[in-house]
């Protein structure tokens, strides 16, 4: 009695909830340890529990309060209780921090230190094998403590595993259990498939039959289940859906019954698995009993009754609770038909008949209505090897008398069970036991024979184990073979022997002190489904041996054996097949790519014939004009040819059969009159481009092969032979990489020393001109090659013609056409290669038409710019007013991009050396005696020789740069860079609106805009440039001093009319903040703020825009501007704040505009603006947002202001900080217990609040107000409403269960396509 009273006192004792943050290392700082201890626990015991849970040695760390600044550690040896040490009981959260002791990190406890663990935690328990990359089995389930007694090969166990398709471990476990059930396997073998009646692909029994035959006769380690799942009507996506094994069992049995109708196996499932029970209600006054008979396929056993603190310890105890009646009294009284009134009654279940194969489902998956999460109960529940069901069976007659004796009542039952839906009695739409609730069609009631008391002993033969949590996990099966009595673990493709000890370790249970729902997110391994077989020698069957198979099964075995042999032969062929990439320059289809698969014993001649057919060259090129050569596709390098090796096997030529090769093959072709050139190992390939300085053209490449040890003189002679040029006057320029041109002029230097590699590109020029006499970097050749390597092709979309721009644009273009005449378009890029084959020089003689037109363009442009700058141009005397309408339409056009806050041009490195190209260039005289390394052309350094590098300053970085230098001179004049525009297509009617622009990518945005001016028809200050990306998203380019180096060929640019930014200006997107609206962030306008402008000045400029574009008539003192970070409102900007001095500003900046209902109370930066919202638990509602202005970061001041505003007494007021992004939405079902209410801090700017800036969200409540009592229906209805509300606002619904696809087996071969479904 004393022991019982101690237990009762312990149960009634208040408990202390401790939350410990481990701040000893960066890896653990985000982790929280939770302990729920009796209030009488001493501090020394607290240290022991924390050490045990954290895995540390006890005396090597300190615990301190987490919400006090002094961080004084708690006493290690104190015997003072937690309640006397300042801990708050009753569900209050006590925050502690685990810190270093004496400056040293805690010591990790070794295995031997874990003496406090119970025996079960010390033992090795079985579990899933760690599988490389296997889906559905996370790291939680492959703990080192989980291992098998032994890992045996198939030759030792004799059993075949099943391959996990992705997350089909639940299916594999059930299939192996059915296969190891003699009665089911034998009955399935006796069924004969009629191919004339059904498609074998969609026949579930036939595919199961095939699978069982393979499991019994295959020599493989594991076999696939794809044919079975295909017969279910599943596609590949089903393999990634994890379901409940008990749910699958029900659905599969139902599908088999449907398929087996009107066959001998029609009643097989019922004969083997169906039992019968009575669901009754008995009046306690007159004895009248109302009842009905139901059938069942499995019995669901509750692990832990709802609301109870103790779990049932064994299957026998859970079975007893299953049949215990409950008393219906009080408001739950039963209306008795005999008494004609409501009476007390007893309601319960009686097991009338037991199936031959008894299936018990341990209901480990539950739902926690406090946290709104699915949880898994990992409590220990033992189960016997032999189960005596005689105490639980009622062998009375089916027709019950009107009065009968009733068994003891009192134990709480979960509810009655009807038909085949017993295990789903807890299921709802929102929470289910790992799977989806199914509507069974119900099987026909069948009354089996009544068992005698001597035949009620059942033998355990299958345990289906779940390892993981309610969020997911892994299934495997432990099954006893009736052939040798040995237990085996069937874990997907792994099959191994296990012992009885391993079975006992699946009983469950976990070490340490755990609360009721501590297992919600814990991972554990325990039994989930048990299958017993009745011990009846007259019925117990053995597995059919191969010689006893029916004839149709013998035929199937032979068929599968032949198929397996064929598959084996095919695998052998695959292992001896070389698979290599094959390329071919097809005479019609250009470069083609394919894969050549050739047996290693095939000769080169046979492989060439195969490649010839593969590349479809028949009728175009004769086979004699083709050969295979070794090829490097990355470097476009022909490594070697195979002369005289036509009869050599491919395996020898390719170096064996490999999964991948470091080289490729090229099917080379020639004309009949040509001969193949031999390619020898060690040679390098050189693409030679001939440059003609007179016509300023660069010819298509000629391929030349050379040796790395050749000298430059020998190399020139080789080129001379190939091109017919004179080697005496030849200049050779090697392009090693982008912007690296090297003149090869040292005669005796080798190609290797000059940096030649496998594949190289050189430019050669041989003429009698004097250009070779000047320094290379000052020569026409260098300038031509320099422009060739830097010119890109852009597609420019011009704005729509408008009355204000048409005249200007037409004038500019007419002038240009008059100056250009009929200029040839000679700067087209070859569509086959990335090289310019015909380009122009900007510094050639005056007789070049293209040079004349470009120079005329520049002169015209300079005159117009000077006129505009001097104010003498009448056409644009008032550009600001002239383009007011265009600027407005531009902001409207860009509304769809209002959420974009990133300018990709700014993301590119503004300090890249490629941007340093706007300085004056001066000639560099080369010193005598320097080798070619010294005169390597760095185009960037050449462009800036003689001028200080123009790195962007901090001032320039903060905004855009002026298009003009300090003297008012156009920066484009400083250095001319190539620019030429032409219509996109001669036949395109929209060619006026689209231009194909060839431009040097080192040109700045400012110079580019000036060059585009004649085509837009307005000055560069009156239009904006937008870069278009692959998804058609546009970002404005605003940094005028940056180059186009981040652009590449065929990039798109859109020109839009509107005022361009000046130096120090920023484009700003303004959003309205509506704190109490469903969508609190509404885009208003695009505007411009300038550096040095005050907030009040920006408001003065903004308000007329709002009135004109948004029809918002606001006064300047009724609005405020504040920082916007994503959707979060931040710092309030005061009127006297200055941009760039007090407020940091950047391109594409975003701000909130907030309309005030009362005069502005924020006067100083020391104040703090907090958004507060009252939670009313009695009404289950949240009030509107109200702003509170604090003079300091004091918690006391916040509570006083909230108390004054809400009339809640100060001592009853509790507050909590909102979580996530504004408006910090949270379900009303979660807010009362999920937030950290009333944190023990004195200031707002410390952990766990960290409220340091305006805009933080704070919830508050009256602690004396109790939450509304909700019925189950009301709670479910409210849950659905909250789910819908939070999903609409884009906030996560944390209580929503994992969305799962319903488990269905389709008898017609596949699901019907729903046109509405995505």
From TrEMBL:
<feature type="region of interest" description="Disordered">
    <location>
        <begin position="868"/>
        <end position="968"/>
    </location>
</feature>
<dbReference type="InterPro" id="IPR001394">
    <property type="entry name" value="Peptidase_C19_UCH"/>
</dbReference>
<dbReference type="InterPro" id="IPR028889">
    <property type="entry name" value="USP"/>
</dbReference>
<dbReference type="Pfam" id="PF25985">
    <property type="entry name" value="Ubiquitin_USP47_N"/>
</dbReference>
<feature type="compositionally biased region" description="Polar residues">
    <location>
        <begin position="402"/>
        <end position="421"/>
    </location>
</feature>
<protein>
    <recommendedName>
        <fullName>Ubiquitin carboxyl-terminal hydrolase 47</fullName>
    </recommendedName>
</protein>
<dbReference type="Pfam" id="PF19718">
    <property type="entry name" value="USP47_C"/>
</dbReference>
<dbReference type="InterPro" id="IPR038765">
    <property type="entry name" value="Papain-like_cys_pep_sf"/>
</dbReference>
<dbReference type="InterPro" id="IPR045578">
    <property type="entry name" value="USP47_C"/>
</dbReference>
<feature type="compositionally biased region" description="Low complexity">
    <location>
        <begin position="110"/>
        <end position="119"/>
    </location>
</feature>
<feature type="compositionally biased region" description="Basic and acidic residues">
    <location>
        <begin position="879"/>
        <end position="895"/>
    </location>
</feature>
<dbReference type="InterPro" id="IPR029071">
    <property type="entry name" value="Ubiquitin-like_domsf"/>
</dbReference>
<feature type="domain" description="USP">
    <location>
        <begin position="160"/>
        <end position="535"/>
    </location>
</feature>
<dbReference type="InterPro" id="IPR018200">
    <property type="entry name" value="USP_CS"/>
</dbReference>
<feature type="compositionally biased region" description="Low complexity">
    <location>
        <begin position="813"/>
        <end position="833"/>
    </location>
</feature>
<dbReference type="InterPro" id="IPR000626">
    <property type="entry name" value="Ubiquitin-like_dom"/>
</dbReference>
<dbReference type="GO" id="GO:0004843">
    <property type="term" value="F:cysteine-type deubiquitinase activity"/>
</dbReference>
<feature type="region of interest" description="Disordered">
    <location>
        <begin position="397"/>
        <end position="421"/>
    </location>
</feature>
<feature type="region of interest" description="Disordered">
    <location>
        <begin position="100"/>
        <end position="138"/>
    </location>
</feature>
<dbReference type="Pfam" id="PF14560">
    <property type="entry name" value="Ubiquitin_2"/>
</dbReference>
<feature type="region of interest" description="Disordered">
    <location>
        <begin position="812"/>
        <end position="851"/>
    </location>
</feature>
<feature type="compositionally biased region" description="Low complexity">
    <location>
        <begin position="898"/>
        <end position="914"/>
    </location>
</feature>
<dbReference type="Pfam" id="PF00443">
    <property type="entry name" value="UCH"/>
</dbReference>
<dbReference type="GO" id="GO:0005634">
    <property type="term" value="C:nucleus"/>
</dbReference>
<feature type="compositionally biased region" description="Acidic residues">
    <location>
        <begin position="952"/>
        <end position="965"/>
    </location>
</feature>
<dbReference type="GO" id="GO:0005829">
    <property type="term" value="C:cytosol"/>
</dbReference>
<dbReference type="GO" id="GO:0016579">
    <property type="term" value="P:protein deubiquitination"/>
</dbReference>
<dbReference type="InterPro" id="IPR050164">
    <property type="entry name" value="Peptidase_C19"/>
</dbReference>
<feature type="compositionally biased region" description="Polar residues">
    <location>
        <begin position="841"/>
        <end position="851"/>
    </location>
</feature>
């Amino acid at each position: 009695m004393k022991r019982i009273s101690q237990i009762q006192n312990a149960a009634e004792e208040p408990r202390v909830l401790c939350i410990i943050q481990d701040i000893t290392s960066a890896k653990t700082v985000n982790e929280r340890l939770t302990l729920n201890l009796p209030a009488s626990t001493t501090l020394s015991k607290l240290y022991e529990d924390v050490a045990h849970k954290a895995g540390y040695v006890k005396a090597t760390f300190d615990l301190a309060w987490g919400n006090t600044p002094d961080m004084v550690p708690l006493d290690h040896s104190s015997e003072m209780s937690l309640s006397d040490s300042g801990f708050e009981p009753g569900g209050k959260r006590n925050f502690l921090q685990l810190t270093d002791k004496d400056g040293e990190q805690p010591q990790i406890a070794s295995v031997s230190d874990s003496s406090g663990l119970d025996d079960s935690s010390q033992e090795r328990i079985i579990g899933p094998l760690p599988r490389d990359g296997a889906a559905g089995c996370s790291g939680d389930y492959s703990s080192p403590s989980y291992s098998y007694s032994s890992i045996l090969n198939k030759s030792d166990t004799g059993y075949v595993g099943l391959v996990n398709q992705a997350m089909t471990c639940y299916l594999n476990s059930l299939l192996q259990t059915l296969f190891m059930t003699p009665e089911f396997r034998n009955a399935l073998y006796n069924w004969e498939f009629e191919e004339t009646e059904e498609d074998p692909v969609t026949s579930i029994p036939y595919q199961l039959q095939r699978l069982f035959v393979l499991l019994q006769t295959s020599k493989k380690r594991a076999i696939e289940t794809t044919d079975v799942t295909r017969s279910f009507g599943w596609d590949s996506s089903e393999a990634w859906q994890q379901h409940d094994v008990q749910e699958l069992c029900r659905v599969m049995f139902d599908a088999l019954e449907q398929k087996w109708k009107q066959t001998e196996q029609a009643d097989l499932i019922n004969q083997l698995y169906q039992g019968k029970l009575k669901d009754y209600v008995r009046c306690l006054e007159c004895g009248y009993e109302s009842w009905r008979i139901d059938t069942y396929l499995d019995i669901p056993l509750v692990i832990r009754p709802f609301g109870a603190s103790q779990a049932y310890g064994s299957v026998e105890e859970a079975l007893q609770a299953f049949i215990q009646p409950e008393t219906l009294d009080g408001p739950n009284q039963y209306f008795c038909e005999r008494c004609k009134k409501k009476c007390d009654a007893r309601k319960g279940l009686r097991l009338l008949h037991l199936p031959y194969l008894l299936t018990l489902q341990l209901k480990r998956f539950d739902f926690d209505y406090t946290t709104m999460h699915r949880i898994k109960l990992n409590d220990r529940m033992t189960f016997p090897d032999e189960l005596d069901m005689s105490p639980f069976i009622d062998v009375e007659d089916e027709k019950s008398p009107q009065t009968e004796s009733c068994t003891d009542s009192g134990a709480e039952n979960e509810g009655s069970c009807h038909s085949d839906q017993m295990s789903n009695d807890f299921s709802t739409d929102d929470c289910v036991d790992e799977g989806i609730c199914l509507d069974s069609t119900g099987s026909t009631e069948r009354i089996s024979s009544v068992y005698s008391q001597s035949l009620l002993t059942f033998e355990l033969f299958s345990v289906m184990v779940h390892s993981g949590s309610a969020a997911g996990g892994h299934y495997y099966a432990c099954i006893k073979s009736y052939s040798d009595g040995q237990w085996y673990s069937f874990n997907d493709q792994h099959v191994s022997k296990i012992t009885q000890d391993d079975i006992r370790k699946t009983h469950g249970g976990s070490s340490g002190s755990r609360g009721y729902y501590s297992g919600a997110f814990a991972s554990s391994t325990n039994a989930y489904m048990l299958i017993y077989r009745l011990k009846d020698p007259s019925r117990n069957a053995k597995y059919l041996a191969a010689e006893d198979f029916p004839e149709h099964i013998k035929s199937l075995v032979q068929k599968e054996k032949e198929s397996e042999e064929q598959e084996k032969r095919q695998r052998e062929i695959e292992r001896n097949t070389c698979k290599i990439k094959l390329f071919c320059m097809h005479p019609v289809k250009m470069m083609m790519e394919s894969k050549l698969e050739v047996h290693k014993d095939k000769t080169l001649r046979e492989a060439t014939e195969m490649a010839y057919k593969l590349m479809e060259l028949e009728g175009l090129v004769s086979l004699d004009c083709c050969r295979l050569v070794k090829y490097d596709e990355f470097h476009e390098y022909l490594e070697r040819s195979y002369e005289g090796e036509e009869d050599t096997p491919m395996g020898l030529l390719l170096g064996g059969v490999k999964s991948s090769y470091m080289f490729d093959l090229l099917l080379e072709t020639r004309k009949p009159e040509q001969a193949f050139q031999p390619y020898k190992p060690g040679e390098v390939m050189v693409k030679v481009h001939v440059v003609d300085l007179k016509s300023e053209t660069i010819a298509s490449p000629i391929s030349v092969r050379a040796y790395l040890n050749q000298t430059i003189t020998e190399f020139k002679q080789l080129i001379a032979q190939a091109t017919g040029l004179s080697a005496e006057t030849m200049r050779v320029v090697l392009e090693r990489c982008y912007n690296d041109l090297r003149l090869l002029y040292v005669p005796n230097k080798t190609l290797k020393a000059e940096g030649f590699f496998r594949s190289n590109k050189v430019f050669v020029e041989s003429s009698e001109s004097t250009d070779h006499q000047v320094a290379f970097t000052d020569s026409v050749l260098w300038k031509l090659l320099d422009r060739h390597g830097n010119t890109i092709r852009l597609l420019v979309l011009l704005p729509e013609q408008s009355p204000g721009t048409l005249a200007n644009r037409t004038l500019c273009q007419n002038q240009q056409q008059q100056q250009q005449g009929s200029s040839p378009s000679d700067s087209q890029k070859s569509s086959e290669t990335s090289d310019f084959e015909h380009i122009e020089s900007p510094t050639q003689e005056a007789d070049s038409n293209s040079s004349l037109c470009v120079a005329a363009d520049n002169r015209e442009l300079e005159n117009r710019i000077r006129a505009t700058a001097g104010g003498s141009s009448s056409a644009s005397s008032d550009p600001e007013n002239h383009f007011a309408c265009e600027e407005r339409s531009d902001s409207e056009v860009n509304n769809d991009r209002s959420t974009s806050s990133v300018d990709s041009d700014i993301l590119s490195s503004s300090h890249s050396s490629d941007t340093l190209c706007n300085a004056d260039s001066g000639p560099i005289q080369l010193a005598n005696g320097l080798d070619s390394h010294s005169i390597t052309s760095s185009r960037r350094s050449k462009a800036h020789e003689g001028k200080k590098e123009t790195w962007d300053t901090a001032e320039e970085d903060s905004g855009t740069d002026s298009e003009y230098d300090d003297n008012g001179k156009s920066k484009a004049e400083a250095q001319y860079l190539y620019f030429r525009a032409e219509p996109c297509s001669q036949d395109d009617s929209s060619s006026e609106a689209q231009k194909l622009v060839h431009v040097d990518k080192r040109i700045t945005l400012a110079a580019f805009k000036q060059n585009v001016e004649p085509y837009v028809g307005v000055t560069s200050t009156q239009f904006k440039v937008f870069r278009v990306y692959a998804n058609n998203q546009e970002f404005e380019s605003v940094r005028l001093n940056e180059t186009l180096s981040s652009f590449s060929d065929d990039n798109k640019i859109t020109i839009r009319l509107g005022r361009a930014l000046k130096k120090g200006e920023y484009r700003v997107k303004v959003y309205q903040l509506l704190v109490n609206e469903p969508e609190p962030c509404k885009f208003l306008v695009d505007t411009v703020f300038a550096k040095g402008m005050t907030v009040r000045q920006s408001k003065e400029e903004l308000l007329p825009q709002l009135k004109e574009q948004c029809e918002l008539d606001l006064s300047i003192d009724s609005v405020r501007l504040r920082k916007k970070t994503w959707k979060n409102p931040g710092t309030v900007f005061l009127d006297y704040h200055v941009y760039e001095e007090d407020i940091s500003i950047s391109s594409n900046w975003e701000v909130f505009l907030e309309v005030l209902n009362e005069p502005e109370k924020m006067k100083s930066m020391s104040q703090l603006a907090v958004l507060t919202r009252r939670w009313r638990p009695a009404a289950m509602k949240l009030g509107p947002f109200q702003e509170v202005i604090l003079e300091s970061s004091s918690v006391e001041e916040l509570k006083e202001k909230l108390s004054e505003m809400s009339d809640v007494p100060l001592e009853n007021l509790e507050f909590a900080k909102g979580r996530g992004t504004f408006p910090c939405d949270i379900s009303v079902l979660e807010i009362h217990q999920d937030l950290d209410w009333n944190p023990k801090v004195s200031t707002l700017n410390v952990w766990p609040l960290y409220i340091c800036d305006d805009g933080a969200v704070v919830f508050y409540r009256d602690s004396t107000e109790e939450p509304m009592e909700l019925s189950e229906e009301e709670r479910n209805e409210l849950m659905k409403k909250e789910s819908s509300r939070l999903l609409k606002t884009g906030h996560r619904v944390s209580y929503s269960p994992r969305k799962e696809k319903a488990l269905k087996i389709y008898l017609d071969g596949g699901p019907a396509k729903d046109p509405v479904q995505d």
